[in-house]
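hey so u asked for the seq, here:
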Amino acid sequence: MLLNKRVRCLAAAMAASAIVAFSLPALAQDVSESHLKAARAAVAAIHATDPFDSILPQAAAALQEQLIQKNPDMEQMISTTVSEKALGLASRRADLEKEAALAYAKAFSEDELSAIATFYGSEAGKKLLDKGPLVTRDLVKAADIWQNGVARDLAQQVGEALAAAAKTKAPAAPADGAAAPADDAAKPADGGNGG
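ran it, C-alpha cells below
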C-alpha cells in the first residue's frame, strides 16, 4: 500500500513538473541571468529541493519491487537494469533545481533572493533550518495545550455567566409560582360557583 502511494506521489510530482516545465519557458524569458543566479543561491541556501531527493530512488525501488514480484526469476537482471537506468536519470535532478529557481525568481525580486540567501547562509539561518522543525513540533504541542485550556476556560466562564444570569431571573420564577397558587385558589372558587 505504501509502495502504491509512493508511485502515485511520484506520478503526480512528474505530472506537476511537466505542467511547470511547459509554463516555464515564457517565464525564463522574463528573468535575467543575475535574477536566476540569485534564485539558485536562495534555493540552495534554504535547501528547497532537498525533500525531493528521494523521488528517483523511491521510484526505482518501487519499480524494482513490482517487476521482481511479476518476474522473480529475473531478479538479478531487473535489479541491475533498474539501478543502471535510475543512475542515467539522476542528471535530470538539475531540471528540478532550474524549475525551483524559476519559481522563486517569479515570487521574489533579485534583491529579496539575495537577502534570503545571505540570511540562510549565515549561522543564524543555518540554525533556523536545522532547529526550525523541532521548534515547530514544540510549538504545535504548545498550541494544542493552549487550545485545550482556552476551550476549557471559555466553556467554564460561559457556564458560570449563564448560571449567574439564570439566578438573576430566578426571582421572577417565584412570582410565576405565586400566580400558580392563585390560579389553584381560583379553581375551588370556580368549582364552588359551579356546584
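The mean pLDDT is 83. Helices lie at 2-30, 33-46, 55-70, 75-89, 93-107, 110-121, 123-169, 172-194.
lmk if thats what u needed
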